[in-house]
């Protein structure tokens, strides 16, 4: 035999080893398919039983904030230095977290009532507040409410109303800070929204479109239960005058738990759509070679993989969460895609060969291809699990395990189904009735009904008696689409359009919006979502009151220390995040203490010694107007010096995520320069704004390097591996850029989908590239067309099936599921276009060519595949001169 003149890369050894292993494996499954049906099914069923231990995590803080978030350390500092007893000295401003609460946003229901500041509306608000406070299950409100000075804490609006109702109804107060009848200064900025003012007296309100009342609770189990049950109680409140929407400290967590239940009917719809599409796409007029039944069985493998994954991970203690509920849609799409690859590879085998030989050839081509994509899918999700967002970690853990289970079931369970189906086809049995039938060419004497509904195949009495026809879609690709795509003018046009696509994607990336809004964790039609909409509409003028802590002892009576802190306060006030937010922008005990000392002692703090200043400070903190500051000063054990203190800055007009992030980072920078620590409970969620982009870029970078290594090891040419990585990068760029035009932010949800980009990009790109490399043809154009002929149709089937699999999510009333659909749709669309359009053109321009001998027919005449007259069926029947020589030997 002649020496083969094939110039292969040394790395081809891994590729050839895989082909050799799967060739033997395919033949083994063909001989003994039964164990490959029974064992994988039983194992998957046993693993699925672990779902009885499933635990769903619903904490929004745990799932959607970075585990290494800076604000969590800042909260620990606050909790260590400043303790507050919610049964004695509660103050909502000084909470280390969001606390336990029930909040109600109220608007007038009747069109004629345009303001809450009128007697009818305020009377209803008072009735609503009493309705809440009178609820007594499981305990009376007085036993679960947060307490200050022996009384349940009221927010500023309720405190003002209860102190002097007639004065309020006459609008005889200032805004946003007013003085109550008891002499307390009350901040109303968080209680009244949508305001209009008198032009000559800006602090006097003409109207307010909305009001918010707040009920603060103790942090106990009884309070938690009361909070849960009072929502049902509120459904019994009926009013023709006001409309209200509630929110509680557990509302988002409750909504997140409901999302998983909402996903169950969507999975059913997805499964139905997939089954329908698989059956239709595998139908042929040939009733022996058609494969609707095997297609239905093919959907079983990813379904079992999903069940086994959830059961296995639940059994070993891995939490489930609502984001993971999107995983079945994805795995069903991946599994069906693999099934199409296997079926198409089988269709390209020769019917005259034995079942063992056909399964050998099927697995040589298909199993290697799906092995590459399964490995890269698994690694892509495994890499995604190193992120600092637990929701992303859990999704990636579940999905990576499901990818492996699906792969195992595809090459065992579905391979066995294929072996049985191959035996049926070899016996020329009908795909539905299983009866032996005649080929169409041999059924002329039969009835018309028989010829249409029963005939098919190419064998009669075990002998080939007819030609095997290719699927219509494959013919169209081979004879029309492929040759058209490799024409020079078409290539130029595609490259121009591709350059425009890259430019638009880059522009979109510059407009990326980061962060996940809390309302997007709730269903669109839920009270919680509407509450947050009203919050954003009416209550953005006055934002957070951010805490600044001095955590080390300093001499506060020293004018240098005072000057440094005042300088920090001035820097903070002069930012765009404070401005003219309120007449009382700063809540700082030292300012009031210095005024108190001047008024009561007639001297400045710097002119007295430390002991006298400390004595006056204790007197100051016992004054009724200044008791609140007791929570802002941490003394040493004998109360002779100050260990730590804090003050608060009122922000305003934080209308979007960019402003929230900018405020947090700016305040932190200013605080660091002056030896302070900036903190607010909302910072724990704002930390996602600073973490999501670095985490996304990190995952993409690591994944691209990993994909490159895997591709180089398995695909027999380094250039192909680099082309695949560049294609993945192009798809990622397009998804991130285009999703900005579709109202999808870069957050922990879309981060998951960007990780998906890598897996799906490999699926689309690796199949075509691999087919290009193993093609028997000579020129780049010929190999590109051959790759499209071999795998173009299953790629189309995979793209459509995956889209149908996730299509039900598009109609979900939840941002999480809709965002998943949007980004996955972009991934599939861009991946499909890269695999079916861009990559074939690129490979036809710069792809590697093997120095193989030309494809010839039996007479030794070279066969051309370019041009409209290319016949794929004919090309499949012949081989290269090299193959013919091998056969002769």
Topology:
Layout: H1 12-31, H2 34-48, H3 60-64, H4 70-81, E1 100-108, H5 119-133, E2 147-148, E3 151-152, H6 156-163, H7 165-169, E4 177-179, E5 185-187, E6 192-197, E7 205-217, H8 221-234, E8 242-248, H9 251-281, H10 292-315, H11 327-347, H12 355-384, H13 390-426, H14 448-453, E9 459-460, E10 463-464, H15 472-485, H16 488-509, H17 527-538, E11 542-550, H18 559-573, E12 586-587, H19 589-601, H20 610-622, E13 633-635, E14 642-652, H21 657-673, E15 677-679, H22 683-714, H23 718-739, H24 748-774, H25 780-806, H26 815-846, E16 855-856, H27 872-877, E17 879-880, H28 881-888
Antiparallel strand pairs: 1-7, 1-8, 2-3, 4-5, 6-7, 9-10, 11-14, 11-15, 12-14, 13-14, 16-17
Helix pairs in contact: 1-12, 1-13, 2-10, 2-13, 9-10, 9-11, 9-25, 10-11, 10-13, 11-12, 11-13, 11-25, 12-13, 12-22, 12-24, 13-24, 15-25, 16-23, 21-22, 22-23, 22-24, 23-24, 23-26, 24-25, 24-26, 25-26
Which terms would index this structure?
17 strands; 889 residues; 4-stranded antiparallel β-sheet; 4 domains; Multidrug efflux transporter AcrB transmembrane fold; disordered C terminus; elongated; alpha+beta
């Amino acid at each position: 035999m002649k020496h083969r003149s094939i110039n292969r890369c040394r790395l081809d050894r891994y590729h050839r080893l895989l082909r050799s292993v799967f060739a033997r494996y395919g033949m083994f499954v063909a001989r003994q398919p039964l164990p490959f049906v029974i064992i994988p099914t039983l194992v998957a069923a046993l693993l699925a039983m672990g779902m009885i231990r499933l635990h769903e995590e619903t904490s929004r803080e745990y799932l959607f904030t970075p585990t290494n978030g800076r604000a969590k350390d800042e909260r620990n500092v606050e909790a260590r230095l400043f303790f507050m007893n919610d049964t004695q000295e509660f103050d909502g401003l000084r909470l280390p977290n969001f606390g336990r609460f029930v909040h109600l946003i109220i608007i007038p229901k009747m069109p004629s009532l345009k303001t809450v500041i009128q007697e009818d509306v305020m009377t209803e608000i008072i009735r609503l507040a009493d309705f809440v406070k009178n609820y007594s299950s499981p305990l009376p409100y007085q036993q679960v409410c947060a307490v200050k000075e022996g009384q349940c804490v009221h927010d500023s609006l309720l405190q003002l109303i209860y102190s002097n109702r007639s004065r309020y109804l006459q609008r005889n107060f200032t805004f946003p800070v007013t003085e109550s009848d008891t002499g307390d200064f009350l901040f109303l900025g968080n209680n009244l929204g949508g305001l209009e003012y008198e032009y000559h007296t800006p602090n006097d309100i003409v109207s307010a479109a909305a009001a918010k009342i707040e009920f603060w609770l103790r942090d106990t189990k009884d309070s938690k239960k009361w909070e849960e049950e009072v929502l049902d109680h509120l459904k019994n409140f009926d009013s023709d005058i006001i409309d209200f929407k509630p929110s509680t400290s557990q509302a988002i967590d409750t909504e997140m738990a409901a999302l998983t239940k909402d996903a169950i009917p969507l999975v059913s719809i997805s499964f139905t759509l997939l089954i329908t599409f698989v059956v239709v796409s595998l139908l042929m007029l040939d009733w022996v070679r058609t494969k609707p039944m095997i297609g239905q069985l093919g959907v079983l493998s990813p379904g079992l993989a999903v069940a086994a994954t959830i059961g296995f991970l639940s059994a070993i203690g891995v939490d489930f969460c609502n984001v993971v509920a999107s995983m079945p849609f994805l795995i069903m799409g991946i599994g069906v895609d693999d099934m199409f690859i296997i079926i198409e590879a089988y269709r390209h085998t020769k019917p005259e060969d034995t079942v063992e030989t056909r399964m050998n050839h099927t697995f040589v081509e298909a199993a290697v291809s799906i092995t590459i994509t399964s490995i890269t899918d698994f690694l892509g999700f495994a890499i995604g699990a190193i992120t600092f967002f637990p929701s992303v970690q859990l999704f990636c853990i579940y999905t990576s395990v499901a990818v492996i289970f699906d792969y195992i079931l595809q090459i065992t369970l579905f391979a066995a189904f294929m072996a049985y189906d191959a035996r049926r086809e070899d016996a020329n049995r009908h795909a539905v009735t299983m009866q032996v039938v005649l080929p169409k060419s041999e059924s002329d004497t039969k009835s018309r009904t028989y010829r249409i509904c029963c005939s098919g195949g190419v064998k009669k009495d075990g002998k080939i008696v007819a030609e095997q026809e290719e699927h219509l879609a494959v013919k169209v690709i081979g004879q029309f689409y492929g040759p058209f795509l490799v024409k020079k003018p078409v290539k130029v046009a595609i490259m121009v359009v591709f350059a425009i696509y890259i430019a638009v994607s880059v522009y979109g990336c510059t407009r990326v919006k980061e962060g996940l809004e809390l309302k997007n964790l709730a269903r669109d039609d839920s009270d919680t979502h509407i509450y947050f909409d009203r919050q954003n509409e009416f209550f953005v003028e006055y934002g957070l009151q951010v805490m600044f802590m001095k955590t080390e002892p300093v001499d506060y009576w020293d004018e240098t220390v005072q000057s440094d802190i005042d300088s920090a306060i001035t820097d903070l006030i002069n930012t765009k995040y404070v401005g003219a937010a309120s007449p009382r922008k700063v809540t700082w005990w030292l300012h009031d203490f210095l005024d108190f000392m001047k008024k009561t002692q007639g001297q400045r703090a710097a002119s007295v010694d430390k002991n006298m200043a400390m004595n006056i400070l204790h007197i100051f903190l016992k004054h009724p107007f200044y008791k609140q500051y007791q929570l802002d000063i941490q003394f040493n054990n004998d109360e002779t010096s100050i260990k730590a203190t804090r003050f608060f800055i009122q922000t305003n007009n934080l209308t979007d995520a960019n402003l929230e992030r900018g405020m947090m980072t700016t305040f932190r920078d200013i605080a660091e320069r002056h030896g302070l620590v900036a903190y607010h409970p909302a910072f724990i969620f704002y930390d996602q704004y600073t973490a999501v982009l670095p985490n996304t870029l990190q995952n993409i970078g690591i994944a691209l390097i990993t994909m490159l290594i895997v591709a180089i090891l398995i695909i027999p040419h380094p250039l192909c591996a680099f082309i695949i990585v560049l294609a993945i990068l192009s798809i990622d760029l397009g998804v991130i850029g285009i999703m900005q035009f579709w109202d999808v932010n870069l957050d922990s949800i879309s981060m998951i989908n960007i990780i998906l980009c890598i897996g799906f990009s490999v699926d689309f790109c690796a199949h075509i590239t691999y087919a290009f490399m193993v093609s028997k043809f000579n020129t780049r154009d010929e190999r590109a067309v051959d790759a499209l002929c071999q795998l173009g149709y299953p790629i189309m089937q995979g793209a459509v099936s995956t889209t149908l699999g996730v299509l039900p999510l598009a109609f979900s009333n939840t941002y999480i599921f809709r965002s998943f659909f949007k980004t996955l749709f972009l991934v599939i669309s861009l991946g499909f276009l890269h695999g079916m359009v861009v990559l074939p053109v690129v490979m036809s321009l710069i792809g590697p060519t093997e120095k193989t001998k030309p494809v010839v027919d039996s007479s030794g005449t070279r066969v051309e595949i370019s041009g409209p007259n290319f016949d794929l069926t004919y090309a499949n029947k012949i081989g290269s001169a090299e193959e013919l020589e091998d056969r002769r030997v």
